[in-house]
Amino acid sequence: MFDPRFAHSVSVMCMHDKNGALGIGIGQVRKGVRFRELLEELDIDPGDVPDRDVLHGGPVEPGRGFVVHSLDWSGADTLRVAPLCGLSASLEILRAIVEGHGPRHWLIALGYAGWGPGQLEGEMRRHGWYAAQGRAEILFETATEARWIASWRAEGIDPALLASETGRA
Questions:
Q1: How far, in Å, are 53, 92, 137, 160 from residue 143 at the CA level?
Q2: How far apart are CA 3 and CA 7, in angstroms?
Q3: Of 24, 38, 104, 152, which sees the most CB atoms within 10 A?
Q4: How many domains does the chain have?
């Protein structure tokens, strides 16, 4: 990857059309931020909800929160990334999680990665990204730090054999 901020990154591609693309990083923990603290900052009583890591979703709008979640919950603003997951960015989903009627599986991230029209396609032509199949078990059941390796292995690729540079023939 040409941008070191994305070295060994794993993102869920949530939107990709003629206007550009939006992805949420799911492979790096945002240091110094925890889920219960985030709830308290938003004046939501965390009650008995378990604490969780908050992920580094990407460099764009790093203070904006997103919840990547299973499709067993949907709110007014939920973007369906079917069949893999949903993406929500409202207080409604946070309250649902705290109250015990939110999605079964969820991750919370701050920030996102965004690309303008054609930008992601250009980066892929220069081998900046690999588009792996989205897998719920990697998204929701694999430890954050293990998602990069797990994504490659699920594609049948040993990441230890990857070259750090590409050439042209």
A1: 11, 26, 10, 19
A2: 7
A3: 24
A4: 1
